[in-house]
Amino acid sequence: LSCCPVSQLEMLGCSIGNKGAELLVKHYANKNTTGQLLEELILYGNGLTSEGMEHVMKIVRTSSATLRVLDVSLNSISMAVISEALKHNTSLTDLWVGRCGLSVK
To answer: Which residues pair with 9 in a beta bridge?
Structure first.
């Protein structure tokens, strides 16, 4: 990923888990200062939990976020983690959370 700018990243069912999400976010946190800005991130079915989503939401929370599309469907995540990050985001236009077992309780 370091050889060329990647604005769209689809990782459907790659089973990256929480550690993979952490490494991905660290990579893009470093690239954000050099102009490699992520616009679409698809993490459908990757075995993420709320711990992994905390890492992913760092991309959403940043004031310079350019992420427009985020798909975290089919992961075991918490709505609380997502809603907190969305308070600080103005770029996200599409959020996919299907089959995540979310509740409003």
So the answer is: 41
* DSSP secondary structure letter of residue 41: E
Residue range 4-54, pLDDT digits in tens: 677 899 999 999 999 999 998 888 776 554 455 788 999 999 999 989 999
Answer whether 40's CB lies under 8 Å from 8's CB: yes
40: which 2 tokens?
């679409």
Spatial CB neighbours of 37, under 8 Å, sequence gap ≥ 6? 5, 7, 31, 64, 66
DSSP percent split of the chain into helix, strand, coil, nearest 5: 35, 10, 55
Q: Which residues contact 49 (CB under 8 A, 6 or more apart)?
A: 18, 75, 76, 77
User: Torsions phi, psi of 9, nearest 5?
Assistant: -130, 115
Beta strands in the chain (DSSP E): 8-10, 40-42, 69-71, 94-96
